[in-house]
Amino acid sequence: MFDLWVIFLTGLTVGGLTCLAVQGGLLASVIAAREEEVSSNTKRHALYATGFFLLSKFIAYTVLGFILGAFGGALNIGDNVQTFMQLLAGIYMIVVALNLLNIHPIFRYVSIQPPRFLIKIIRNHSKSKDIFAPALLGAMTIFIPCGTTIAMEALAISSANAIVGALILATFILGTMPLFFGIGFITSILGENYKAKFLKLAAVAVIYLGVTAVNGALTALDSPLSLQSIAKNFPITLTLGKSESQESNGVSVTQNPEIFVTSLGYAPNYIRVKKGLPVSIKLTSKDAYSCASAFRIPSLGIAKNLKANETQTITFTPDNTGRILFSCSMGMYTGIIEVI
Q1: What distances in angstroms separate CA 293 from CA 191, 204, 308, 315, one per listed residue?
Q2: Do residues 272 and 251 make contact, with C-beta atoms less than 8 angstroms apart?
Q3: Which long-range contacts does 119-123 make (Cβ < 8 Å, 24+ apart)?
Q4: Using CA atoms in the order 225, 227, 229, 234, what is the torsion angle rounded to 10 degrees?
Q5: 31, containing H or E segment
Q6: Average predicted confidence (pLDDT) for the chain
Q7: 170: pLDDT confidence band, cut at 50, 70 and 90?
Q8: In the predicted structure, residue 339 carries a pLDDT above the cut 80
Q9: Quick check: pTM over 0.70?
Q10: C-alpha Rg value of the chain to the nearest Å
Q11: Residue bearing the bigger pLDDT, 62 or 116
Q12: Residues in contact with 310: Cβ distance below 8 Å, sequence separation at least 6, in sequence order
């Protein structure tokens, strides 16, 4: 699963600003209606309206993420299709960031706008001065997402996991909340020049998340274009960690290894087996709620989806020496099977 802090940071920066531009008018109109209704303590009422708006929005997007993740899993899409969806989501995030950086006018076309009639229908509800109006509008914002939100929704679908999908959107929406609480205040404090610089810094976070998604997809496909493969095959390689000889030192050869699957990855993530002999790997899941529970060996066409606490076994016979990559379905967690 993607680093949730990066998703939170994306929501806190560019996600908050872009969503504020698309959905901020709805919240502002609700606050204005509440201030017209009350004659005193308007700030308190505005805070209540904002709170109801954001709470219902958070709940709605968490449920949406759960549905999208479950939908991706219920489709029972093939591993390659799921990875391709992740690849597209990563590319889309990079293009969104390039648009924020004003690299070229062509990237403006990536912005997806909802139908005008839908925006009009939703905005009509903002005329209600009832306290439930903010909550209703907060929930209905799922129908007018900003471009960054759409990218996060695509990630939720590509995860093919209801829990992971819910976590992705819930974390992202949490990140957007501070700017919504500061609606109007942020606009009055920040100058245009500062906003432009802030957007550029925020775009870097989106590029990082996009590159991570693309590289994860390429890793899951065991592509020679992944960053790991390029680093491995680069003629001049700087050793930042253990060397191959150091990595294999002390690791015994066994045809019946056990790999523990956790939310943080695989342990061990390096095993050694002999060529030409059957290999039986026992996968033991221990409270694994991340994409690590979707165990894949791309080159062998092996795929196992484990429940949070479950044990499964995979068997194969390696015909050639060398390294065999295993990873989660999103390429975030990886490991090596060394065939000697």
Answers
A1: 46, 30, 7, 18
A2: yes
A3: 119/144, 122/26, 123/25, 123/26, 123/29
A4: 100
A5: helix 16-37
A6: 75
A7: very high
A8: yes
A9: no
A10: 24
A11: 62
A12: 285
